[in-house]
Amino acid sequence: MESASCSAAAVGNGDMGSQRELSLVPERLQKREQERQLEVEKRKQKRQNQEVEEEKSDFFAAAFSRERAAVEELLEGEESVERLEEAASRLQGLQKLLNDSVLFLAPYDLRQGQEALTHLQAALAERRQELQPKKRFTFKTRRKDAALTTKVDTTPVPPTAAEGILSPSLPLKEEEALGFSWACGFSNLEFQVLEKRADEVHQRDILLTELSNCTIKLYGNPNTLRLTKARSCKVLCGPVSTSVFLEDCSDCILAVACQQLRIHTTKNTRIFLQVTSRAIVEDCSGIQFAPYTWTYPGIEKDFQGSGLDRSKNNWTNVDDFNWLARDVASPNWSVLPEEERKIQWD
C-alpha cells in the first residue's frame, strides 16, 4: 500500500510539473515576441534616423553649394565695397550653416566645407587688399617710412618686458603669405608677456606665430585667431566671432571662445574652450579640453558683440579626423581632469 501511494504521489507531482512547464510556454512565447517587436522597432527607428540624416545632408549640400556660388560670383565680379560687404555677410552665413550641420555631417563633408570656406575667406581678404587706396610714390615719404620701419624692427625688446608693452606687428609679407592681409599679432619672440587691447583687435584677424615661452593676452572681440609654431606658450583670448586655428604647436595652454576650433599637427596642449559647434583635431596627440574660464572686465560686452551664445558650449564634442571609429574614444584627445584645471591666468 505504501509503495502504491508513493507511486501515485510521484505521478501526481510529475503531472503538476508538466502543467507548470506548459503554463510557462505562452509566457516564454510572449516574451520572445516582445523582444522581436522591440528589435523591429529599433531597426525601424535607426532606418528613420538615417533617412533624416541623409535628408539633412542633402539639404546642407544644396544650400552650401548655392551660397558658395553666390559668394564666388560677388568676388569675381566688378569690385566694390558694397559687393565685398555682401560677400562677407554671406560668408558668415555659410560659416553658421556649417557650424549648425556638424552633428550630422560626415567628417569628409565637414572637411570639404571648411576648406571651401577657408579658400573663400582668403579670396575676400585679397579683394579687400586690392580695394585699398594706393599710396603716392614720393622719395621723401619712402625714406621716412623706411627709417621708421628699421627703427621699430631692430629695437630689442627687453627679456623682462612689462605686461602691456606691445611687440612689433607681423611683417606684411608674412601676413599676405598666410592670407591675412589685415591681420595683427606677434611673431618671432620668446620669454615675453604680450597683450593687445580691445580697440586693437576688434573684428580683426589675429596671427600669432613663431613664439616660445610667451604669455599672450588678447582682450576684446577678434574676428579670427590663428596660432602657429608656438612652443610652451599661454594664449588667453576674448570671444572670437568665427574660427580659431592651431597648427604645429606643442606644450601650450589656450583659453578661447569661438564658433569653430580647428587643431592640426599639435601635441600636449591644454585648451579651455567655449565653442558653439564642434572642435576638430587632425594629426594631433595629447590634446586636453576643459570649459572656458578666463575672464576680464568687459568680457560680457565682448561676448554680445561677438554674436556667440554664452549659454551654449560644446567643449566635449570633438571630431578627430584621424579616428573614425564612433564606438571607441579617440586616444588623441581627452577631458582635462577637474583637479588639473586650476590655472593661474595672471
Automatic annotation (TrEMBL):
Q: Which SMART domains match?
A: CARP (SM00673)
* InterPro entries linked to this entry: C-CAP_CF_C-like, CAP/MinC_C, CARP_motif, TBCC, TBCC_N, TBCC_N_sf, Tubulin-bd_cofactor_C_dom
Listed under GO biological process in this entry are: post-chaperonin tubulin folding pathway; tubulin complex assembly
A GO cellular component term found in this entry reads: cytosol
Q: How does it assemble?
A: Supercomplex made of cofactors A to E. Cofactors A and D function by capturing and stabilizing tubulin in a quasi-native conformation. Cofactor E binds to the cofactor D-tubulin complex; interaction with cofactor C then causes the release of tubulin polypeptides that are committed to the native state.
The family assignment reads:
Belongs to the TBCC family.
The record describes the protein's role as: Tubulin-folding protein; involved in the final step of the tubulin folding pathway.
What protein name is recorded for this chain?
A: Tubulin-specific chaperone C
Source organism of the structure: Sciurus vulgaris
